[in-house]
Amino acid sequence: MAAYLKRLHHISLHASNVDKVVHELVSRFQFNVFAARLTDRAKQLALRRGSAVFVVNERPNEPVTGPQSRAWSSVTARDHQDLKCLYGAHAHYPVDTVSNVCFEVESVERALRALRDQGLCEFLQPPTEVRDARGRVCFSVLRSAVGNVCHTLIDCSRYRGLFLPGFSAVEPGSQTANPAHCPISHFDHITYACPRGSTAHITRWYQQNFGFQRFFIDRDEDEEEGYVLDHDGIGLRLTALEYRERSESGITPSSRDEEWPDCKFVIAESLPEQGSNQVDSFLDQHRGAGVQHIGLYTDNIATTAHTLRLAGVQFYSPPPAYYTEVGKQQEILDAGLDPHTLSQYGILLDTDVHTHTDSRITPSQRLLLQVFTKPLFGDNSFFLELIERRGASGFGEGNIRALWRSVQNEERERRNRHTLR
Ligand SMILES: O=C(O)C(=O)Cc1ccc(O)cc1
């Protein structure tokens, strides 16, 4: 039996300059800092937009020794004063990175029992209880099958505080946009950049440990091969996984109070034939596999991109001809959108060909709008994406190609500028 997950709780970043990353997420991406854990040794800030929560942690410059490697069973938040990173494994990593995807579970003990039975996991932190006046949580940390990415499993069912024990409330700032101007609601997908040949192992790891299921991007996709794009300068293998809600305690998904946000996991690896590419550039920069980008869901991508652009976010754009191609222009107009608006922000439009179980949704209604932002931590590093789905649950080939090209073109121009200097 795989371990049961309730929902995605938060995503942790580790950065050498926490203030800079938090400033970027607040002043540009319109996240709100709502909780903080500040001690002599630790700086952890929690930021939210809709149900999407990031925790930004200070990255240590040297390997961590001491209390973090000790095992506790039950402690108060105060006992954690010395810990640089609570609710994660504070491993040394040489570059800024997305370090942890934290899942909420119903019972940490039961989840760990299921994972131990599978025998595939490396456990970094035994079950640990943290308490404060508002209650207690139990968590445990394990290493994922992807580079430096860890998963914290946490049971918050007996905690009534704002976020997690050890964190205090931060008054809302006046800086961020009205939700109507920036309707980002949740994490839509997390894309891993992985070395060639590692997809099968990663897929199996998530299927066996957590019961993730394959999400076929294309109706003709081969189960083993994944979705392969291997012509016109693109060499990309994508394999997507989704977590369909199961029930551990007999509660059917529809009767649950809060539902699992539909966040897919996408595994991307490059193919050998097509030369330098964005997956391998990420692996070089990041010194190994990891989270390449995260899709932020919005129900109005044009408004969101407009707000973010005014705040200074830069987007990758396809060549201008993309918006004047006759077919594409008509597709945009048919969707009730303005080609000029989309071209201003580099927004791409596609029709999802994923086989829909709901036959009432016709192909023309299954639209997908996406735009990639420039990287957060410097060239070739982690970036964000805005995505709006109008009946489309997958990823469209046209958008993947255009997204790939827009990043490739920019990288080529940057390399050229560099050699000319
Ligand atoms: O479309 C998406 O958001 C994906 O996740 C697919 C993808 C993955 C990796 C790339 O370098 C480009 C596109």
Structural description of this entry:
The chain has 421 residues and is of the alpha+beta class. Helix content is 22%, strand content 30%. The protein has eight helices and 19 strands. The chain has helices spanning 18-28, 108-118, 199-210, 278-286, 301-310, 326-334, 339-345, 397-420; strands at 7-15, 32-38, 43-49, 52-58, 74-76, 97-104, 122-132, 135-143, 150-155, 168-169, 184-193, 213-215, 227-229, 236-242, 264-270, 290-298, 348-351, 367-372, 383-390. The strands form two sheets. The protein has a ten-stranded mixed sheet. Strands 11, 12, 13, 14, 15, 16, 17, 18 and 19 form a nine-stranded mixed sheet that branches. A hairpin with a 6-residue loop joins strand 8 (135-143) and strand 9. The longest helix is centred in the last third of the chain and has 24 residues, at 397-420. 3-(4-hydroxy-phenyl)pyruvic acid (ENO) binds at residues 191, 238, 266, 268, 278-279, 295, 385, 395, 399-400, 403-404.
